[in-house]
Amino acid sequence: MSITPHDERFMAAAIRLSRWHLGRTATNPSVGCLIVKDGVIVGRAVTALSGRPHAETQALGEAGVLARGATAYVTLEPCSHHGKTPPCSEALIDYGVARVVISVTDPDPRVSGRGIAMLREAGIEVDAGVLEAEGRQSLAAYLTRQTKNRPYVTVKLAVSADGMIGREGEGQVAITGPEARAQVQALRAETDAILVGIGTAIADDPLLTVRLPGLQSQSPIRIVLDPSLALPLTSKLVETAREVPVIVVASEEVWPLSSDAEGLPPSALPGISPTGGEIGKRRDPNSPVSDGDGFALRQDVGQGANPDPISPLVGEMPGRAEGGASPPDMDSRRAALEAAGVEVVHCNPYHPEVLLPALATRGISSLLVEGGAKTARLFLEAGLVDRIQLYQAPVVIGERGIESPLTRSDIPSGFAHTGTLMFGGDRLDEYERGL
């Protein structure tokens, strides 16, 4: 059967439905499913919170006997393997569905093509690739973790009319208006984790939670790049760590917090990151980086990533010349943070080629980088950013402004402009790199 406008209309509805639980389905993708019979939707569902049950089984359960002879519209190829639940392909067969329309084929090697083959072997007609571009966009986080072994990374920047993202020494400076800030809150609600540098965490003392009414429970994991464990115990992040998780990424080598607001090691040159150990573990520098599950953390993730990271010269980084010994109070800082509910892990904070795959092994599929300028530049220069959200506001910062790492005139190559939206007086331009 050829694809019809009705197929595209129902698939578009399934894709919209799939976005309801973005960032809330653990390691499973948020999938939408509609069961349609004689042009009427008789069952609909999105992957449940925490990832189970899957969308197909819920939608079939709602449709009941009406599923026999119906068409199922699914945003991702139905699973074909036995995990903690029976395969969705098997459920579609058991309910007697006559046709399955799929947007995106699953890249998971346990599924890829097998779900479609199982359905066809049972005599069910299958059409795949319907509204595939839109489907891939809604599944971007899952697809990136599956194919690149890292989270889908979004950099969000709010830039003033004179190209600044803040003012030195003044903490948080309101650049965008309330409409744009609400949109950012909604973005946080559909993201697994949000990341800032220690300079931003100290200067701004942000909460980094979702505060929109009705969405407060959808706050992402909060991550701070904090090589020297300088995060104050009185910060909002630490004080709320038992309510919303906080992960502090500490270095295996320790240097003083620099005065340039982001705490980058003094020896780090543009585009060069120090090497580091696996997240949460010590490692032999001569051994392959492993995620602890028996396979190597890829060093080639992302276009432009440096496959052979270069370390600073020995002696340039305090503590390194002495074999990486930590200052005497590091253990007490760690103990105090952990006592407050903060998780402290060891992985070079400024080596995203190692950090991002390690986050993926923890089930983090999407990461929002919110600040500051040097942290955003770190990910951009590493070639590990998938989407840029650039807000332009009419506000002028003036003297002592902190320059934005990019503007609309210098977006890195490889990104396509995907749209412009207005929120009050603020303009949002979005750029994406192809999946």
Kindly summarize this structure in a few lines.
The chain contains twelve helices and 16 strands. With 435 residues, the chain is α/β, with parallel strands linked by helices.
Please tell me about this protein's structure.
There is one protein chain. With 435 residues, this protein is of the alpha/beta class. It is built from 12 helices and 16 strands. The chain has helices at residues 5-18, 55-63, 88-94, 114-121, 132-138, 140-148, 178-189, 198-204, 236-239, 330-339, 352-361, 373-381, and strands at residues 32-37, 40-46, 71-76, 99-104, 125-128, 152-159, 164-167, 193-197, 221-225, 246-250, 343-346, 366-371, 387-392, 401-403, 415-423, 426-433. The chain is 24% helix and 21% strand. The strands form 3 sheets. It has a 9-stranded mixed beta sheet with strand order 11-10-9-8-12-6-13-16-15, sandwiched between helices. A 5-stranded mixed beta sheet has the order 2-1-3-4-5, sandwiched between helices. The chain has a two-stranded antiparallel ribbon with strand order 7-14.
Which helices and strands, and how do they pair?
Layout (H helix, E strand, L loop, with lengths): L4 H14 L13 E6 L2 E7 L8 H9 L7 E6 L11 H7 L4 E6 L9 H8 L3 E4 L3 H7 L1 H9 L3 E8 L4 E4 L10 H12 L3 E5 H7 L16 E5 L10 H4 L6 E5 L79 H10 L3 E4 L5 H10 L4 E6 L1 H9 L5 E6 L8 E3 L11 E9 L2 E8 L2
Parallel strand pairs: 3-4, 4-5, 6-12, 6-13, 8-9, 8-12, 9-10, 10-11
Antiparallel strand pairs: 1-2, 1-3, 7-14, 13-16, 15-16
Helix pairs in contact: 3-4
